Input
Amino acid sequence: MNLAAVNRAVVNRSVVGRPVVDRVAVVACGAIARHVADVAGRRGWPVDVVPVPPLLHNRPERIAAAVEREVSRLRPRYARVAVGYADCGTYGALDDLCARLGVRRLPGTDCYSVFAGAARMRAVLEAEPGTYVVTDYLVASFHRSVVVELGLDRYPELRDDYFGHYRRVVWLAQHPTANLRAAAQRAAGVLGLPLEEVVVGDLLLERAVGELVHA
Output
């Protein structure tokens, strides 16, 4: 899945010129935008999801500025705007932004804890600190998001430099399918690591989005 596919898939009314005063805009990381739209649609919540490019995770220092641009653009037209990000490596920059603009974000340090819960993620990493964690999005986009971004397609010898200290891949599966399972196996194979599947679903994400929508 790439950003263009996410943009086609999510509910995004931000291009419509007239005010949408009865809905909530969620400015979300492109890596979870599809999931946010899915849970909102399933529950019938009045949410429009506006994705921000997921590859910003490779430059987290740029996330807060990108989110602020979207929040500022949408606020005049929506009843409320929320942020579909955890901290995601911004080291508090998103919290500062949310406090300054009076908006809320998803809880936690990263999307892994949003899907699995903080306690479960601690257990996963304590059991094996050398764990490389992937989600449905990262499994589906692994070649573009990891292989190409890290240059492994051009310099495969860099694999051990990047991943030599990892011991396993853990896939936090929101909606495991045969295709995603095969993609997860391929991703683990690229890294030369064993794969473990942990089914987390999207219930915790649904609860977190519900808190944003009904705050």
Q: What stands out?
A: Residues 127 and 185 are 21 Å apart (CA to CA). The beta strands are 20-29, 47-52, 78-84, 131-135, 168-173, 195-199. The radius of gyration is 17 Å.
